[in-house]
Amino acid sequence: MPNNSPTAEGRRRSLTSNWPVGRRLRAVLLIPVLVALVLGGVRVKRSVDTWQDADDAVRVAELVQAANKYASDAINERDVSVIPLLTEKKASDAVVQARRTTDADAAAFDRAVTRMPRTSGLLRRVQLVRNGEQQLGVVRANAFTPRMSGVQTEESYHTVQHPLMELSNELGYGSSNQTSFGRTLYAASLTQAAESLIRSIGTHLLVENRDDLAAGELEAQLASFRSYAYLEQVGLQEFAGAGTAQDMARLQQALAAAEARGERQSADAAAKATAAGRTYVSPPPIAEMITEIATGKPADELAAKGVTPESFFAASTLGFDAYRSIQVNLTDAALASAEDIADDARRDAITNAALVLTAVLAAFLLASWVARTMSTGMRRLSASAIEIAGKRLPGLIHQMSQPDAGPVDTRVTPIPIDTTDEIGEVARAFDHVHREAVRLAAEQALLRGNINAIFTNLSRRSQSLIERQLALITSLEDNETDPEQLENLFRLDHLATRVRRNGENLLVLGGEKPVQAWDRPLPLVDVIRAASSEVEQYERIQFSGLPEVQIQGPAVTDLVHLLAELLENATAFSSPRSEVRVTAARLPDGRIMIEIHDEGIGLAADDFATINHKLANPPTVDAGISQNMGLYVVGRLAERHGIRVQLRPSGERSGTTSLVMLPDTLADRSPDAQPDSDTLTLAMVKNVPGSRQADVMASLGGGSDSGDAFSDYEAWQDEPAGTRPAEEPRPAATRPRPLPRRAPGSRGHRSP
After folding, report:
1. Torsion angle, CA of 673/679/681/686, rounded to 10 degrees?
2. Which of these, 538, 544, 535, lies nearest to 728 by C-alpha position?
3. DSSP string spanning 157-183?
4. Cα distances (Å, whole numbers) of residue 60 to 165, 170, 328
5. Disulfide engineering: 718 pairs with which of 4, 37, 671, 682, CB 3.0-4.6 Å?
6. Residue 622: which pLDDT band, with cuts at 50, 70 and 90?
7. Looking at residue 107, what is its pLDDT?
8. What is the C-alpha separation between 254 and 262, in angstroms, rounded?
9. CA-CA distance, 597 to 594, in Å (whole number)?
10. CB 196 within 8 A of CB 79
11. How far apart are CA 547 and CA 668, in angstroms?
């Protein structure tokens, strides 16, 4: 069967059921925030990857740029070294400068290598460059010597130049087609390399002494020359196929500019020859020069047509430089594009990260603000509700429950929340509940007021009848001489007095105060005698140690009533053969402590605590009051005059001690009182037999502590034995000394 116990319900309760509102809102936002973080993180990761790739592309472009310059200057070194080396001028400035430039390019290439991305493709290509560089020193030492016949010198530089040229294939990141871009640059490099070989071999053919050539060496040189001329055309076709229209236009512009520069150079040379008186033969275009050289004609015959080593080298250099400018333009464009992409990617990464973090932070700040707003309103609502439920409403109800409450302001102060959201609706609902509670309390107070009025009317109606009855009984007592009949009249008188006190109890329940009061002080002993005269078993009450003090007139009537209720309770709940002892003592601060001791059945500790609480805090009139009307009346009368009443066990023996503490404002010392008359209580203790001294001492606070508030009052040194006034035991059939009776409907007294 299902387990519906509170423990099981607590186990089934959600983990978040006790979470604050702020934590719940953050938990609600956690999943979308995590999703946003993941998506934002992916976007940021993509931007960072793009940034990293673009940065790698920048370093690759720098590497290719350095490699192309290195390759161009390496083959240019070979070309400018042809004439000096073939004419035995190895220390020529042109050769030294060319090699120095190549070495500087090699150092720049090394620096670019240290910055390049460590990819397998780049590392493989750089290793090929390193292998070629290892042969560069040997090539320089044996260039254009018998150790390198034919075109071996020209083609040996290929071991360095070709791996450098192949690095162009790694270029082109960010272009629409990286392969096409690298292919374009490779085609331009190939065309330049072919032009360089044409320039080098053609110059070699025009400068060298053909008589010194070995058999077949000239034919090998011519074959290589013709093949490289064809390779140049292949390179141009490859460039046209791989490059864009803008690339082709740029190449045509460079070649046209080179041709125009060649014409200007030819015109300048013709002018200088004419000025020097020499004959000048204008060289043909570069294409015709290549065709003439490829035929294998002797140098003299070619010179007659204007094809000299100088004119051919100059014309070929124009094409070489044109192709070089295309290379530089392509590498610069690739580097600029990669840098732009890297900058954009870096900016996008920073922007995306900032946006993601800002969005997450804004979400949590918004959640915190909303949570704080809600929790502030809820805390204010909770604090106001607790204040209303724990202070304002109980205080108002207590004020209205008082018999003499007077006008009470029942207006409800709304909870200070003026929003229209759910919290505001709860606040308005609680205000409505508060108003309804106040309204019901006011109705209950009105109902209690009506009931009190009924009590008062009923009491006043019966008081006049009871007073008439008492007057008739008194008249019969005065005229009766038969002791037995007189005893019966005394009992009837006491019963009527008890009925009158019950009527007066109704007045107390109704919150009524005495209409008339004593206008002069009355001795305490007379007050206690008046209280005992209202008790049916008055003959069991014994007085001792009463100080000579005067009780203020306005408090006499209520004090008599209070003591009568306590004495009635003591005689009713103790053995008819036992005494009820009344003692009193004056404390140093002027207060009067009255003790009423009985030897009855006593009470349990919990009952003492409950009764003492009700005596200190008289409850509101309800149906349960009829069960303990005397207790309620004692508490109300004590509260009215600031009197403290408490019950406690009577020491070691059974019974109860009633303690009544009169404030110093109610008692005055009698003018003719003896200075030590307040110490008769302890004198009484010395005259008590030893078997009862412990009980008497316990009743005076010397026994076990019962935890009451009066256990610490102080007893003074008693007078010598024998100075205490002797007790006057009353005969069983003798009534106490007559005292003034209370007037009908009042708490004052009239003369007999």
Report:
1. -130
2. 544
3. THHHHHHHHHGGGG--TTSS-HHHHHH
4. 13, 7, 15
5. 682
6. low
7. 93
8. 12
9. 10
10. yes
11. 11
Question: Distance from CA of residue 219 to its chain's centroid?
Answer: 92
Report angle CA 645, 651, 652 to the nearest 5 degrees: 155
CB 581 within 8 A of CB 544: yes
Rounded to 5 degrees, φ, ψ at 519 are -100, 5
Residues 6+ apart with CB under 8 A from 447: none
Which residue carries 């990293």 as its tokens?
A: 52
Please enumerate in sequence order all residues whose Cβ is within 8 A of that of 711, keeping only pairs 6 or more positions apart, or say none. 648, 701, 705
From residue 127, give the alpha-carbon distance in Å to each of 44, 72, 474, 585: 35, 19, 143, 120
Query: By the 8 A CB rule, do 293 and 302 touch?
Result: yes
Strands 580-586 and 592-597: antiparallel
- DSSP 8-state symbol, 711: T
Bridge partners for 593 per DSSP? 585, 661
Q: CA angle at residue 432 from 431 to 438, to 5 degrees?
A: 90
Q: What is the DSSP string of 427-459?
A: HHHHHHHHHHHHHHHHHHHHHHHHHHHHHHHHH
HSE value, Cβ hemisphere, 13 Å, CA-based, for 401: 16
Question: What distance, in Å, lies between the first and last C-alpha atoms of the chain?
Answer: 81
Q: What's phi and psi for 581, nearest 5 deg?
A: -100, 135
- Greatest Cα pair distance, the chain, in angstroms, is 194
**Nearest CA among 47, 26, 27 for reference residue 356:** 47
E strands of 3-83, at which residues? none
**Dihedral, CA of residue 600, residue 605, residue 606 and residue 609, to nearest 10:** 90
The tokens describing 147, both together, are 């150790």
Look up residue 312 and give its two tokens: 């051919």
Q: Do the Cβ atoms of 314 and 83 come closer than 8 Å? A: no
Provide DSSP, 579-635: -EEEEEEE-TTS-EEEEEE--S----HHHHHHHHHHHHSPPPP-GGGGGGHHHHHHH
**Residue with the two structure tokens 């102080």:** 714
CA torsion angle 147 149 151 156 (round to 10): -20
Distances from the Cα of 243 to the Cα of 61, 165, 246, 247, angstroms: 18, 17, 8, 6
Kind of pairing between the strands at 656-662 and 667-669: unpaired
Entry pTM: 0.51
Across the strands, what pairs with 597? 581, 657
Task: State how beta strands 656-662 and 592-597 pair.
Answer: antiparallel
CB 708 within 8 A of CB 673: no
Q: In this predicted model, what pLDDT tens digit does every residue of 673-719 receive, in sequence order?
A: 555 444 444 434 444 444 444 444 444 344 334 444 444 443 333 33
d(CA 93, CA 81): 10
Residue 733, token pair as written in the block = 């059939």
Percentage of the chain beyond pLDDT 90 is: 8
Order of all β-strands in the sheet with 667-669? 522-523, 549-551, 667-669
Question: Which of these ranges, 467-476, 636-645, 722-731, has the smallest mean pLDDT?
Answer: 722-731
Measured CA to CA, the distance from residue 544 to residue 584 in angstroms comes to: 8
